[in-house]
Each structure stands twice: as C-alpha cells, then as structure tokens.
Automatic annotation (TrEMBL):
GO biological process terms held by the UniProt record: translation
One Pfam family matching this protein: Pep_deformylase
Catalytic reaction list: N-terminal N-formyl-L-methionyl-[peptide] + H2O = N-terminal L-methionyl-[peptide] + formate
SUPFAM superfamilies in the record: Peptide deformylase (SSF56420)
The name this protein goes by in its record: Peptide deformylase
Amino acid sequence: MILPIVAYGDPVLKKKAKDITLDYPKLDTLLENMFETMYGAYGVGLAAPQIGLPIRLFLVDTAPFAEDEDLTAEEQNQLKDFKKVFINAKILEEEGDEWAFTEGCLSIPDVREDVFRKPQITLEYFDENFKKHTQKFDGLIARVIQHEYDHIEGVLFTDKLSSLKKRLIKGKLNNISKGKINIDYRMRFPDQKKKR
C-alpha cells in the first residue's frame, strides 16, 4: 500500500526517532508499504519519519543511481544491487574529506541543493530479521545512508545549508508546508489536513 509522504514543516520530521524491538507490530507489512511508497515516488531511500512514524527505521535502494554514465562499471554494479533495510542504526564513524553532491528529498519536493558529507561511514544496524551488522559504506551508498540516517535523527538536508541558501529557498519551503506544490505522489501537509 502506498502511504502519504509527510511534507516539510511537519513536526515528526524534526523529532529524534526511537529504537524499535523485534516484536514491533506488523514490521513486514510496514517494510513492504515503505518500499512501495518509495518506488511510487521514484525515491532511493525512505525513512519512517517521512511516513509519520518517529521510529529508527529506514530503507535504501540505490539502483536508479546505477544508470549514471559517469560512474565506473564497478560503481554501477554496486549501486544496482544495493537494497537494504536499516533498523536502529548508529553511525559509529565518518571519515574522509567532505564532498558536495546535489541532494533532494521526497518530503521536500522540487528543492535540490549541494550538501557536503564525508565519503566513508561505519554503521551499526539491524536488518529486517533483527540480525546485527557493523559495516563500512562509501561513496554514493554512504551518502544515501547518511541522508536517511539524518531523518531518524530529526535532521533534514536543508538544515545543512548555509544561512544564505536557507533564505533563498524559504519561500519554496513555506509553499511545500502549505501544500502549494504540484507533485505526482501522495503527500500529507502540515498546514492542511487534505491528502493528495
């Protein structure tokens, strides 16, 4: 089932999410719905707060990035096959020199800005079967994970922009929170109770 994606301005997006346990109700159904919602909106990642749940859960499928012709064959293969669920994730370490990449967010449609992030991370997380992993990620995969991880920490990519950039996009952000935007996926807006 495709769920409405929570729009910029909703307080759930600024909340630090809570850990969940193995007995979280209907986790399989939730994951299925989240993947369907993400694919329906042409996303590469989706965090639970983006569907209104303040829990430490996000999922990633970087396959759309594999079509970038500027990447090596090895990078394309890595991205094509990377699909994962992350539960109760914790970034243990971020390494390397920060690099800029243009990011967007399903909760903030039509806003794309360069964000600086470190290229390598070490992450501790549980998969959908609650098996614990500690793993290193780098490049675009690390970036997508960092973006989704920020969501469970109550941080949006727009929080990482300079004050000048924030002022330049303020009008767009206000319009998003009021639902004054044309999008082709379901959203829930904080300033109005209607769904699209």
